[in-house]
Amino acid sequence: METKRFTKNDSGFVCAACGKEVPPLGYTSRNHCPFCLSSLHVDVNPGDRAADCGGILDPIRTEPDPKKGFIVIHRCRKCGEIRRNKAANDDDRELLIRYTAGRG
To answer: What pTM did the predictor assign?
Structure first.
């Protein structure tokens, strides 16, 4: 039997990197802060909360994607793992563009 690779988990949270309150996204799982683009290394697969690391995932760059908009690439401060995630509709667009240009 195939294991689900996505678990909807659209909870609001307080960002561990910038301290701002982040509301639920409403249409899919909230993965990262729309204000600073940081996240937490808490998932193995999206929304499962199965990772033991818990480190802050810092945005290191963004990549434009013709179908998905932007992809945010994060690196974990604690373990160094690289993670990719689709940008959300309410992410700071200027920040997404700055990280694409390598000026994060």
So the answer is: 0.85
